[in-house]
From TrEMBL, chains A, B:
Main location group: cytoplasm
Family named by the database record: Belongs to the class-I pyridoxal-phosphate-dependent aminotransferase family.
GO biological process, one term: aspartate biosynthetic process
A single cellular component GO annotation: cytosol
Catalyzed chemical reaction(s): L-aspartate + 2-oxoglutarate = oxaloacetate + L-glutamate
Aminotransferase class I/classII large domain sequence ranges: 49-395
Protein name listed in UniProt: Putative aspartate aminotransferase, cytoplasmic 2
UniProt enzyme class: transferase
Lineage, top ranks: Eukaryota, Metazoa, Chordata, Craniata, Vertebrata
Amino acid sequence: MSTLSVFLDVPLAQKMEGLLLKAFKQDDSPNKIFLAYKVCMNSEGQPWAAPVVHKARLQIAQDPSLNYEYVPVKGMKAFIQACLELLFGRHSRVIMENRVGGIHTVGDSGAFQLGAQFLKTWRQDSQIVYIISSQREQHGLIFQDLGFTVYEHCFWNSKEMCMDPDMFLNVVKQAPHGCVFVIGNMGNCKLTQCQWEKLMAAMKKKQIFPFFDIPSQGLFTGDVEEDTRFLQYFVSGGLEFFCSQSLSKNFGIYDEGVGLLVVVALNNQLLLCVLSQLVKLALALWLNPPTCGARIITSILCNSALQEAWKQSLKEIVEDIMLIKEKVKEKLRLLGTPGCWDHITNQSGTHCYLGLSLPQVEYMVKKKHIYIPKNSRINFTCINACNIDYITESINEAILFTKDSELSSEGK
Amino acid sequence: MSTLSVFLDVPLAQKMEGLLLKAFKQDDSPNKIFLAYKVCMNSEGQPWAAPVVHKARLQIAQDPSLNYEYVPVKGMKAFIQACLELLFGRHSRVIMENRVGGIHTVGDSGAFQLGAQFLKTWRQDSQIVYIISSQREQHGLIFQDLGFTVYEHCFWNSKEMCMDPDMFLNVVKQAPHGCVFVIGNMGNCKLTQCQWEKLMAAMKKKQIFPFFDIPSQGLFTGDVEEDTRFLQYFVSGGLEFFCSQSLSKNFGIYDEGVGLLVVVALNNQLLLCVLSQLVKLALALWLNPPTCGARIITSILCNSALQEAWKQSLKEIVEDIMLIKEKVKEKLRLLGTPGCWDHITNQSGTHCYLGLSLPQVEYMVKKKHIYIPKNSRINFTCINACNIDYITESINEAILFTKDSELSSEGK
């Protein structure tokens, strides 16, 4: 009897690593450079890690008093407490009022998977999600797979070369009642007091549910408090929200995938109900979250000397990032590259818009083997002393080339 | 303006920790004992850990050459290879033929969540799952939440006091075409060659899909190869299957929740299709599996001295378990407890049927504060020098009490 496979109808799934990375890997050019890694790189082109992590890891391995029994489904209490205090500040009102809580989540997707499953069940009348285009592939697909309708948007004003609060306000204005808004770091989108008030009023009126994405607190301005200050507007505006707080990038333990799904509710009673439902979902997803990364983070955050050392290392890496941006700008100035490049240094964080047009991006990729996303948002920590000259000269070439072709097409 | 919460309709979810543990925690008796923990305990009543884990953990923490960058979605290659060789044997045909693979999964639920999601999509014509009653709460709910119909069954023959292969065969006979069978360790269910052949023929004919649960390879007989030998029947019988391979309990790193979803297909091409779909699902579930536990396990399995030490520690703990069972039997003999207690030592593993009736279990729980599941399947490693006398005396009392009440009701 010949046997038929039960898997006969299962097709090969497309690799999801992104077309850009795939093209980069297939490129044989010795000059090829990839400027879209998620990871923060150090000046040697290696993934950055907070030096204090090594010390914490060793202390944990040498501690005979630790036991390695199952931890609660929602995670270790001390870990959750430390992370919430990091996010909102130790003496924040929302912590005092006992209306913020968290669930330990796994990997870069865990918090979004858990939160989306919750919203799927408990917000059945409004299964619409707004998400920033660059987050579409990573988080948008999670919502889409669960049956949400996902709309993309973008706040980058390519004419003014800045993040544009009005573009954000317009999307909110047009969004339907009760939809979910995935919101990344808002630091580069500078709202005036009046714009904040408008935003809060519009979101509250429409019962828009914010789902924040804090992938690397501290790696934006170098100051952990400053990086999440914008959350206070939402807290004091009386909004309820979820927040995916990742702690892998800002400690440099990318392989531990440590995170939290943070819940802010109007009062403690509501919070407990939401957390209890999330625990139920986490039970089915993984049951017990791996604790190694959580132990490292807790031991750093709960020891003031280690915490200070960690914060100092964040300051240093952010200064390095700013230095790279300054150098890129200076090199472009020396090359006489047309245009004003202040937008490079006006943006904070590892990932910023370079401000190239689509033909310029294509020139960089196809002619210079420098791999840049279509929206030209690159990871500046991928630029270092070894490749900065080639990169800036290529940017210059791309600008001049497209200027020339514009002129020649205008002349036709 | 008073604000309404978006969480207004969210009720408090029931705690899922199990009614038995809840009742135990609420019991104020100083004599209370819980005999249903999942964890393997050492003779001091502490969670067992393989001593070699400490060494591996320290080595990893001291290794300056390690980087902590993101690992692939499916997990570290060396880890998966080492785990598959542990499960099937290094020179097994299925590995040689390149038709077995695995995905690193998270926590005790991860492999079942991932596998169930796959089966939900790719076996749409048969969404029925058979599961052993004692696994209902842990794994059955995962299938149920995804829309599967879940049937419970049990192979414990309480008359013969043994696991009964005929009961298994009967359930298979009655099961519908194409259903999924979650199968735990079959070591205590001793099939004859003829019964194996019948089982394979019935499963193949009906295209029944086995989903094995290997929660603690090596903690059953003390011999890792012996513990999973039954898988060979399914491999050589030409069946395709999934297997949830957990590596937390047999290394004693319960808090790391390390596992694998193992896939056996008829050929490499089919395997690659299935793995590609699983990677897509894992991307949305957690994206990157935490690696600390996987590193510990890989460094032990890939170093023959450490591997030997680990295997030796498994042998020792299993000898301890057998010793406890012998002692329980001997104590019951000395107490003159009615009945033959050979079934205690005839079963291997940490969790075995004590063979009490429902009224006897109720007597143990209510009168003696010894918490035992209704089916009387207990964790023998929870019995130690401190509590063995109280436990065996209580068993004796429970037997005599119910014998008396049987007699008195017969006399009526």
